[in-house]
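USER: Study each token:
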Amino acid sequence: MRAGQGAVFGDIVYPSIIAAYRPDPNINYEFVGGFDAGLDVRLLDNRLNAEFSVYNRTTTNILSNITLPNLDIPFTTNLGKITNKGIELSMGWQDKIGSDFSYNVSANFGHNRNTVNSIGSGFDFQLVGNGGINLTRAGQSIGYFYGYRQVGIYQTTADLVKMASFTTSKPGDIAYADINGDGVLTAADREYLGSPFPAYNFGGSVTLNYKGVDFCWKGRDKPGIKYTHKEERPILPRLTLKPIVSMHGQDPELRT
């Protein structure tokens, strides 16, 4: 539910609430199917341990909010199928040296592939999120980044003549690729910029203990995650970039 406009009776204003979305009368549960297989190994008096797992899960009847003509609130229904496939591996070693010193070393690795197999039954379309920055379409990951690909900076007014630009572009602004080659930047020049999900992740830790005093180091990384940025023009004639999503990985620029 969400707040409505309210109503006035006499001298009193009564708040009202309206539905936040309209449910499909035939709405159903999401269904998740697939398989998980794993192996857990412990050797050498439990000093060495290793775990390996592989999974393949498919979710159908995904609950989604879509916009329909002549409807001012989202319509919630079951749409599409999504698959998640991946592997996870972890290994560790723990031991003691003498009676006062012990240590533990571990590492882990994971890989996951998220794919939208279809949206809808008998028809296919795209779901837009985050003000148009994220797009969900069959054949790609959920909510992949969709926008303009940066190719440089307009250094002078001459660059605005030689390169495709927006009608509001000025020197110092980011220049974007003219995908369709028509000489101007429009919504038709937006393209796939990458997945918000890492292709893989890894990490590790080291723990040392000497006479009850512990030292611990932990690290992890998720390479391949993309960035998005939002362009803003301050009072001064220069460009500032404020991150919407800040994660490790490559750094394409998004203008919305």
Notes: Residues 20-148+190-245 form one domain. The longest helix spans residues 157-162. DSSP finds one helix and 19 strands in the chain.
